[in-house]
């Protein structure tokens, strides 16, 4: 595939005095800007079809697309990324759905995101409370949903965020199943498909915790290919831009927990291997 080189002239960020408050998904009403955004989206789609020998050139192009997109739609985020060693942070304050009965888990906590700009993989920390304490509990599905509209509780968040019209579980925000321990979920995930940058950013969208386990698209029905038959929406939150402070407080704990878990698995595998020898 032959791709023409593109050069974007990025607008300078406005001063704080001249900037207006803009909601996460509010797009400026300017025809020229819409044209640039349309171009950026088109280029981003081309990048997804890149051949290996075009990787460097297309990564540079992707950076320019992300620069353009951020500087137009989220100028403050763009400034924050540059100021924080080109790393973006986002957070989501989890609250129970008002439609959930008192007999259901009242889930609170937060989901944190971090991503190196412009080509890093998304990382996430899930720190959630309010699940039943006990053993042999089923998993809880967590997904990114299309809208950040919580006016009708979690029900108005729409379906799964699915910009590429794929079947579940190949949506960018299909995070899988999470298992609580003593009523709490503390989990770190890396190399996620979702992104904070570009036309497919999850900023302004919602994170939803479901009542049931995700069947990962293996349920042999339509709902399985749409949402994994994950059941009712227990809690939700809207992803917004954030600072590194909360991430840096939480990351050492989840990193140590992950290290211990991997060490335990390795020790278990090693002991089974020794036992299997004659």
Automatic annotation (TrEMBL):
Cofactor detail note: Binds 1 zinc ion per subunit.
Keyword Glycoprotein among UniProt keywords: yes
Instruction: Extract one GO cellular component term from the record.
Output: extracellular region
A GO molecular function assigned to this protein is: superoxide dismutase activity
Protein EC: 1.15.1.1
| UniProt xrefs under PROSITE patterns | SOD_CU_ZN_1, SOD_CU_ZN_2
Instruction: List every stretch annotated Disordered.
Output: 255-278
- List, alphabetically, the CDD domains matched: Cu-Zn_Superoxide_Dismutase
- Chief location category: Golgi
Catalytic function, reaction form: 2 superoxide + 2 H(+) = H2O2 + O2
**Entry keyword Zinc:** yes
Q: Which residues cross the membrane?
A: none
Using the UniProt record, name the top-level EC class of this enzyme in a single word.
oxidoreductase
Stretches assigned to the Superoxide dismutase copper/zinc binding domain: 107-239
Q: Which family does it belong to?
A: Belongs to the Cu-Zn superoxide dismutase family.
Q: What does this protein do?
A: Destroys radicals which are normally produced within the cells and which are toxic to biological systems.
Protein's recorded name: Superoxide dismutase [Cu-Zn]
């Amino acid at each position: 595939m032959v791709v023409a080189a593109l050069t974007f002239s990025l607008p300078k960020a406005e001063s704080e005095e001249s900037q207006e408050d803009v909601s996460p998904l509010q797009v400026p009403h300017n025809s020229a800007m819409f044209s640039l955004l349309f171009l950026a989206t088109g280029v981003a789609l081309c990048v997804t079809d890149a051949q290996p020998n075009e990787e460097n050139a297309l990564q540079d192009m992707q950076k320019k697309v992300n620069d353009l997109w951020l500087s137009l739609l989220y100028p403050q985020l763009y400034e924050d990324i540059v100021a924080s060693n080109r790393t973006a942070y986002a957070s989501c304050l989890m609250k129970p759905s008002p439609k959930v009965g008192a007999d259901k888990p009242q889930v609170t906590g937060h989901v944190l995101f971090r991503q190196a700009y412009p080509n890093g993989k998304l990382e996430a920390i899930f720190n959630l409370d309010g699940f039943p304490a006990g053993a042999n509990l089923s998993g809880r599905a967590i997904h990114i949903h299309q809208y950040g509209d919580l006016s009708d509780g979690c029900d108005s968040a729409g379906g799964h965020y699915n910009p590429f019209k794929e079947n579940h579980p190949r949506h960018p925000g299909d995070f899988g199943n999470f298992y609580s321990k003593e009523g709490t979920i503390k989990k770190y995930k890396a190399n996620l498909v979702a992104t904070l940058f570009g036309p497919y950013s999850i900023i302004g969208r919602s994170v939803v915790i479901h009542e049931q386990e995700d069947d990962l698209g293996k349920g042999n029905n339509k709902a399985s290919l749409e949402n994994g038959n994950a059941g009712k929406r227990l809690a939700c939150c809207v992803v917004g831009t954030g600072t590194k402070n909360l991430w840096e407080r939480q990351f050492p704990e989840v990193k140590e927990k992950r290290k211990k878990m991997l060490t335990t698995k390795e020790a278990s595998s090693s002991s089974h291997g020794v036992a299997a020898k004659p």
